[in-house]
Records
---
Amino acid sequence: MGGMSAIIDNAPYTSFHRRLALACSGGPLLDGYILSVVGVALIGMTPELGLSTAEVSLIGAAALIGMFVGGALFGMLTDKIGREVMYTADLLVIAACSVGSFWVTDVWAIVALRFVLGMAIAADYPIATSLLAEWLPVKDRGRLLGKQIIAWYAGAVLAFGVGYLFLRIGGTGSWRWMLASSAVLCLFFLVVRRGSPESPLWLAQHGRDREAVELVRRHLGREVTAEELRGSPAEGGERLDAGSVRALFSPAYRRRTMFCGLFFLCQVAPLFAMLTFGPAILGSFGMPGGTVMETLGTGLISLVFLLGCYPALRAIDRHGRRPTIIWSFALMIVPLAFLGLWPTAPAVLALFALCAYAFLCGGPNVLDWTYPNELFPTSIRATAVGFATSVSRIGAAVGTYLLPLALSGVGIGPTMLMAAGLTAVGLLVSVRWAEETRGVGLDQSAVAATAPAVPAPTERQPAVPRAARSVGRA
């Protein structure tokens, strides 16, 4: 039996876990805030800088392109040099770029700053979620990893609230303050992250045995050996080079790699476009224009995205990861198809349909970082999270760039039908490849796809002999 299941998987949930979960939520919250506040800032930025439709699209997509580069690069580095090393540096970069946004005078400066912002945000995902996953008890893992996406939507809702206040107080000329305001959030999370520990699993795999054992003793009050934390190849899968991209595409893991990247892409491409250009979408359905109603409508949709995550969190622990993601994708198609087939729907009905889509997105949302953290071993876990993030941001960047062009070119109806089609692809990918990891220890859920995954043994229940174990698949 791997020591990781016996010690960390079954450790009691304590204030240490709560503080670590809060610290790790900084990246997702900042992501939601930064990617959403620009949609409000564009209301004033566009006329002041004389932006064209193509330039508006480029600004909307710049951070997402940066996330594509940053996710792929920093995921590998996180597995090679550790989760803690970049844990503070990325927030400092985000703060500096946020402040720098206040002084921009041309479109290319904004694009460059938002590209760097995207890289720094993407760096935080593999750092924070892999660190959190490697400290969490199995019974709390799905819930707390899923709550990281709730932080994303909390950031989006906060962005629209702050944007609305700036518009009311300072008018459209306050867009510079909106872009700079994310620096305040960076300072808050820099304080919260002080003293956050490295992953003992990563330390043990890299020969830093004394540190790994001491961290478990200090934060969990348990005794464990480094050999137990490392596990054995038979239990934790084959030994892989840290940060190996090649391992992601080996016969054992490529199906999981494709699944995590594709379902993530199919979910966030419509989502990011909707949040970035929510006011423009609602305006296409006749929502009163200007600076207030469309912003409040998009803020409401963001709030419903957040609320939809709570029943999904219960569903992944009660019914399992696989049925939750399949049914969510299936139901998400309905409101998008409704809007596509009725492009002249009244604004109130359009807002209701978009809210329904937002609520139903909860299933894939809470599994965005749960699945890649559970399906890959410690040596390539952050690499997998970074790769899935990068792939998803390809779709998000393309969707964000094309959405305003599609609205002006083919209209709202075909645009919504294209979003419904992409969501249908996510459904097919989930039906074909989604696995069940509920109640499975982190070391066993990460066993290569050719080997069985088993429920995590508890302290009261001995491990089941391997010959009797069954694949953790719905």
---
Amino acid sequence: MEEKSDQLYNQYFVEIDILNQFEAIFKYANEGIVISDDQSKILKINPSGLKTFGYEHENEVLGQKIEILIPKRFQERHVGHREKYMESPHARSMGLQFDLYALKKGGDEFPVEVSLSPFKNSQGSFVICFIIDISTRKKAEENEKNYRKELEKEVEERTLILKEAIQKLEKTKNELDNSLKREQELNSMKTKFISIASHEFRTPLSTILSSLSLMEKYNELNETEKRNKHNDRIKKSIKNLTDILNDILSVNKIEEGKVIVNPENFNIQNFINELIQDLQGLLKPGQKINFKGAETPETVVFQDPKLLRHILINLLTNAIKFSKEDSPIDISLRLEPNEIYLEVKDYGLGIPKADHEKLFTRFFRSSNVENIQGTGLGLSIVLQYVNYLKGTIKFSSEVGKGSVFNVNLPKNLKSSKI
């Protein structure tokens, strides 16, 4: 009997000791601790819990529903959660997939971490809530997040600056490369021009000098026919020199951007007839320019007659130059509501197929016209002028059968400075 009494006595003191330890933990824990019953009424709250929630005395919260510690916007939802939890209570951490917020006495919300531990005794079922204010951690995380955003923004800005710098360097490099290429092209052009010009100028100048000397002699001998023949040779040589100079001036205008397009209304059919008359003196014996006019009665267009004249004169003089005596040259005009179609056709030397690709290149001359005078500038200028008039130019050619050049221009052109 005495032994049983000692056992009960010892068990009592063990339970007292355990209770004392629990009380010590409850009282001095850094975490907030709230104990509620199965109806979620607060039965006990430790000092850290009071401090966490901004209360001075526990009687301010004891007997209240746990929702007093939860922001109003979450209270209704929380009731459903806790009722479901009490159906099958178990130890768990809350807020693993979302942020949790608690409510201070003064109405301020703050982020928390919450752990639940259910237990039972002879008095009923209870839940211990462990609550940690994580405001400092959240602030640190937010600061870190903001810092990362700022860092990412700064990296992005610097990357953009670097990208812009690289683009500028690339642009500068391309400009330098283009300038170098342009300079090389200009040097090449100068070399070609000096070579061609020296040859092309020498021939007509020699002809003029020799013809002038012979004319003096024929004057003394009173041989009018021979004198007139040499007079024509002088005029033709001067015309060749003028053509060369005009080509050079045209290239210079194009290079310096001084070509001005001045469209005006004019009768294109009359314009071509007059141009053909002006070229009669260049025709070889037996050559004739045949003009097939537009079938429409309205032949007024709004284009630049000066540039169009240069285009047609170049194409027609080439046809004359590269065709034999007694060979016809055909020019035709077709007008559509918005388009002008011109065709210049000859039956002369033709252009070798291997030369087609380079035909509109400056200073390029077909391999089969080496003995015929020319600078190789004409067709390149024609192409530029056609572009200025917002048109296109195409050609077809076969050696020994001649060439056909087709020019397509808008019927109405807006003026512009190139």
---
Amino acid sequence: MRWNSAKIFWIGIILLVVPGLIHAYLLMPFPGSQDLNAITVCYYLEKVIMPLRLIGMLFIVWYLFKFYAKNTFKQKIVKAAVFLLCIGSFYITDYMYKAETMFKETANAVFANGLKNRVPLNYLVVGVVNNGVAKAYPLIYLGYHHKLQDNVGNKPVLVTYCTMCRTGRVYSPVINGVRQNFRLVGARHYNAIIEDESTKTWWYQATGNAAVGKLKGQQLTELPYEQLTLAAWLQKHPETLILQPDRLYTTDYADLKNYDRVQAIDRDSTIKNKDSLFRKSWVIGVIINGKAKAYDWRHMYAKRLLNDELNKSPLLIGIEKDSLSYHAWNTSVNGKALHFKLDNNGMLTDEETASVWDWDGLCVTGTQKGQRLAKIQAYQEYWHSWKHFHPGTTFWKGDESLEQTASIYPPF
């Protein structure tokens, strides 16, 4: 086979640049990239990028030694410029748009108690309790870092948050008996993808499902958490330790100002009907025995308290007066389902016995005093993310439950 000298050069350039550009495009939220079912392509492409680049360099070196000198001055300038642009593209693909360099995990996680805390009390936090130890992770910090690998009560935890889909999740980082370190790979379907160190499996942050790799089909063990304001968390856990801001990332935290409290739809003055359902509308998501349901946040806050049933389980959804702290409980007590309303003091009161319960699910006065409602794990999430990862979900909007369909909602 007789090789054309120009083909040798351009094949080398393509191998140097194109695989990395495709990989960066698919793993970052560029227009159209996140709608493709391409996680397997991304996974294996990442493994062959460096070998392809080495082959590309061999082609370039071959060309330089055998053909470059025969080029005209103009041809030499063009090819040299193209090669320099190739080198520059590595900055884009391997740094500028590489998730683990854009969103760095803090290397110095500092915690403080309530007396020494510098985090505003109205910040939202992800709260975790284990073995009597409570820790709070502010969303604004966690949202930039995407993940924090920590210990709570001598138990390893992987605390995660993805701002593209508004998903907080806490997992055990122990896989098959071995504690793993995780790196942030990028995103698919607007959700963060993380990789464990040992098996190099890729996991969806929103579900803990292994999407591709050696452990494909397995699932990270989810650990319970709550999302509420720091003030509400301190009221329940006054001895909590609170993650403090890392000064290295002050500017990055500032980019998320008001993320934890203002819906995107509220910042768009062109939208007249704020009750419309958009991609980034907030919902409260609940899953009971495999059955998923989402509750429209705006309508839920107007109602404040909702008695419902999901998969034959009595369910209570509530949002506190601060408009940010939310809860879900199973209302079965001693085999009987209770129904709740708010009293004049904003406390929970069951209709069956008129007992009063606090926002931690504990009965404080009445015949049920001392009883505690069982917590149900609930999530605050963008509607587009919830319906993607839970395609069979039902949806509640203002006292009516609707089966989720493939309807297309206005992009936002």
---
Amino acid sequence: MADALPAFPIAPNRGLGWMNLGASLHAILTRLKSQPQLYPQIDLSYSVAEPVLELIVLNLPANGLRLRFDGPDQRLRLIEIIDFSKSSFTYKSQDLVRRSGSSNEAIPEWVPGPSFKHLYNRLFGPSYPGEYIPPSSGDIQGTYVLSWPGLAATFDIKHKSWSEKADFVSLLSSSVASPATSLAIFSGSSWPEVRTSLYTKRPQLPRSLALAGKSAETVPDEVEEVVIHGSGRLELFRRTSSSFTIGLNETTPQDLVAELGPPDAIFRKPGNGLSIHAGVASSKPRRPSISPGLDPHLAEHEQSSAKSYTDDSENETSNIEEAQDDESTSEAFYNYFHHGFDVLVSTSQSRRSTSKETPADFVVTKVFLHSNIPGSYSFNRHRRSRWRIALDGNGQSLELTSEMRFKQVSDVLKEVWHSSYRDAEEEKRMQRGMVLNRGWGVGDSPESSIELLGGFEEGPSPQDQGSINAGAQASLPNMSNTELFGFPGLLFEVLKKDTISCLTVYQHEA
């Protein structure tokens, strides 16, 4: 017997089955990839030129679905049923499409969409008149879009039969109109009202599938945005709860767990590796480097949170204290994939114990904010983390954001720190990027990460539109290098298209 069709209840203004409007791309993709028998093909399309600003489209051809996400926040904004044959769709326990015979036992080659009468009389009820879209030159059929709160259906109509004075109920009920060719699910009162702000207004539902229908009292609230204030302070703004501030060399692992919940994974970092910021940790009395650690002779490849992405058995979070008490390491990564960042927990520079008999205090020393750029090496290991850098310069407040090109960010930071350089030669030297190769791997480090992630560049095509099969991302061609650029307290990993892949925030010693 053939497998039954996947079943999806339709919830206007909310979503389709478990796919909630507002859910993050990371959450949706993770769920889809965990069930390959139900979702055998996952195609992702994005703009190579503007991967952060343009829409991201997720196609599920085997299920007849298309999902659209905004670029800056990577949240689900529109669900489209484009093939009614591939899955079973219901509304209030009634089938969206009438099937003959035992329809759930075998997947037919094709069935028509629901008729207007079925939608109007049995499912969604009366509606206001919709919109008619004339055909392009040479086509004989136009398109009529009829919407209800949170839903919109599309019908093909013979253009010669269309009239502004026509009664849409009679027209869509007649033979000049086809059954519905697609059905869209969105958040809003009607399609004409919401389409202009569909990808910009704040979604009502959370990014996390686990948070949907639950409160922050039972599940840790999600982080909406991270604001970097300088002096080693990061303010985490949350969806419903009050903000939480991480102070580098102050916030403890216990503070993190109390505010953010236990990490998704913990990776213990070997204690013998030099940090990319080795210049900051130097015990020699010297003037701090403007771009610490960018000297390739000081940097050794280190393990990072990447290890935990594929080895869940070694990264259970049941024992938080074990990461601190393990004598083989003085540092550990707390991986918050669903929040979009990693946290490095280690002994504080100012509180480090000089006696082996006295346990050292563990605190947060670095935070890694991941951009989740489609086509990059680290894509979908974290959800996208949005951030702002708050600056005061020339008597005015400035803000740099995660949506900016790195050149925009760099130009501002260069101006802010211009007076800190000894001379023009030092300024030029410190602003030069250090190249990283993410494809070779060194030693036990899965990505030669130097505490960062990144690597794949444009995806499979040099065209303006990239497209990847999420189930076979490891085989993508065009693997490229990334570059590191440093400023006091900030380290940027940048892709070739001038897109910021990861921002590391660390304590700058002035």
